[in-house]
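Running co-folding for zinc ion.
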Amino acid sequence: MHKYSILLLFTLIHFNFSYGQVYNSSYAEIVNKCAYDSIYKNLQQFESYGVKEIGTSSLNNTKNWIINKYNHYGYTNIVEQPFSYFGYNTENIIITKTGSVYPNKYIIIDAHYDTRKGTGTNDNGSGTVILFEIARLLKDINTEYSIKFIHFSGEEDGYIGSQYFINNTVIPQNLDIVLVFNIDEVGGVYGMTNNTIVCERDEINPTANNAASAIVTNELANCVGLYSNLTAEISFAYLSDYIPFEANGEIITGFFEKNKSTHPHTISDVFTNLDVNYVYEVSKAAIGASLHFSKALKNVLNIDKNYSFNNIIAYPNPTNNEVSILLGETKTDVKIYLRNTIGQTILTKSYEAVDHIKINIENQQPGLYFLILETKLGKSKNIKIIKK
Ligand SMILES: [Zn+2]
């Protein structure tokens, strides 16, 4: 019935070992595009819609704003999932990005957008705007797994939106969920030092999915250290939309603020009582973690300036005849030139896509040569080669 098979657990453990987390400069380049100004403005915009309880026009207007955001980012698979609560209609918003290797396996990244008693700028405007930044920056990134960004409604009424999604989408479609990453109340407290984020793992029944949750939560904590200025603290998951997923056997993790604000669920849960810079740092950690969990493919990131040559190995060098150049990763539109010490070009070659180049200088005079590597969009690199 549920998916927490030993096989999946094994896969996750294997995944953990074989893709051990080291700082990924390609991920960091994307993380560094996280926009403080967008977060600032989006939090204020979220606040401007008012108290977002089920049955209010505030909640409906917020829903339309969220959908417009994803349209603007270029997403086309945006689904409203309506459900009703005491005669009032409301909707989950589900945005799907298809993975390149495992299109039918899903990472769910979610945040609720309904609020209670106040505008909920921390709970959960903070999670809402972080999803925007993740979705904006991952739009054109090739990920192995599919991602569903879900903005749930009805969280404050007892996870009824996420429960509805499980009952009406996950179970009937037998949706293959790799991981649920929930972001709720990460605004911090204005005036306090907000430098720690809580990474939440599953410590409740059923327990068969708890070990896998602990593994991915450790990975989440590692991403905090790698891609933000924050410190990670691991604690237990409770009181948010990952709970119905957990009960359904899924593997969950999440972010929650360390300094717990007293404002949520009151009229003072407003912009001026949270710490925008903290939301920005949590966003960076969340973007890094989303790239990591969805297995963004380093070789095909759509970042032009990424095409620099950093980890080149040339061997043997000095050489009698052939020299091999390992580029460390596949580069596209590569051109090479071999020049001698008086600037004459001895050889030129072009490659559409290449990770390994071999050149033969058997017929050249002994001495020093320069191999220049260039890409259409990036920096060039100069390597000294010695012919014996
Ligand atoms: Zn919340």
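Result summary
The first helix runs from residue 6 to 18.
The pocket of zinc ion is lined by residues 112, 123-124, 155, 184-185, 240 (CB under 6 Å).
Job closed.
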